[in-house]
């Protein structure tokens, strides 16, 4: 198992969040959700995507960004933001076993003040003219590489 964590900043699509929770359950990763979410976290679409795996996830809800940052300050963990505005490819980044992998809202990413607080910013290189991947796909790619690097299994 690993101490890596996945963090979702104000997610707004329940199906994507459910898929990420299922991924996290299967990989043994804890998940932080920074609220407000764009849907009720008990939404049936979330449950449908996450199926019965959601019960196996260590999920921590933070009522807002400030409360998350207060919590994180006490952990000493590094915050690694996945962003289309970053310059460093995730495959060249050196992950640590206790990193928090932060993913922004599907509709808007993260605001500038959150971007500035990240300790590192990484991106998934894409073909010219393409904007972004589905958040669940991006989370799986980056979490998989982080786990490979820290030899989580």
UniProtKB/TrEMBL annotation:
A single GO molecular function term of this UniProt record: RNA binding
Name of the protein in its database record: tRNA (cytidine(34)-2'-O)-methyltransferase
Stated family: Belongs to the class IV-like SAM-binding methyltransferase superfamily. RNA methyltransferase TrmH family. TrmL subfamily.
Gene Ontology BP term (one): wobble position ribose methylation
One Pfam family recorded for the sequence: SpoU_methylase
Its job: Methylates the ribose at the nucleotide 34 wobble position in the two leucyl isoacceptors tRNA(Leu)(CmAA) and tRNA(Leu)(cmnm5UmAA). Catalyzes the methyl transfer from S-adenosyl-L-methionine to the 2'-OH of the wobble nucleotide.
CDD domains given in the database record: SpoU-like_TrmL
Chief localisation class: cytoplasm
Domain of life: Bacteria
Residue stretches making up the tRNA/rRNA methyltransferase SpoU type domain: 4-142
Reactions listed under catalytic activity: cytidine(34) in tRNA + S-adenosyl-L-methionine = 2'-O-methylcytidine(34) in tRNA + S-adenosyl-L-homocysteine + H(+); 5-carboxymethylaminomethyluridine(34) in tRNA(Leu) + S-adenosyl-L-methionine = 5-carboxymethylaminomethyl-2'-O-methyluridine(34) in tRNA(Leu) + S-adenosyl-L-homocysteine + H(+)
Binding site for S-adenosyl-L-methionine: 104, 124, 132
EC number(s) from the headed UniProt entry: 2.1.1.207
Cell compartment(s), UniProt: Cytoplasm
One of the record's GO cellular component terms: cytoplasm
Subunit structure: Homodimer.
Broad class of enzyme this protein falls into: transferase
HAMAP family: tRNA_methyltr_TrmL
Residue ranges of coiled coil: none
Keywords: Cytoplasm, Methyltransferase, S-adenosyl-L-methionine, Transferase, tRNA processing
């Amino acid at each position: 198992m690993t101490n890596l964590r996945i963090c979702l900043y104000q997610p707004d699509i329940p199906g994507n969040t459910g898929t990420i929770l299922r991924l996290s359950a299967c990989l043994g990763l804890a998940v932080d959700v920074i609220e407000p979410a764009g849907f009720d976290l008990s939404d049936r679409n979330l449950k449908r995507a996450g199926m019965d795996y959601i019960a196996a996830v260590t999920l921590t809800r933070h009522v807002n960004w400030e409360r998350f940052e207060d919590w994180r300050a006490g952990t000493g963990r590094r915050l690694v933001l996945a962003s289309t505005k970053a310059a460093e490819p995730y495959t060249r980044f050196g992950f640590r076993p206790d990193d928090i992998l932060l993913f922004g809202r599907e509709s808007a990413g993260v605001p500038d003040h959150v971007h500035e607080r990240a300790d590192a910013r990484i991106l998934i290189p894409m073909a010219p003219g393409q904007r972004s991947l589905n958040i669940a796909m991006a989370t799986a790619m980056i979490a998989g590489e982080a786990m490979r690097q820290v030899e989580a299994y």
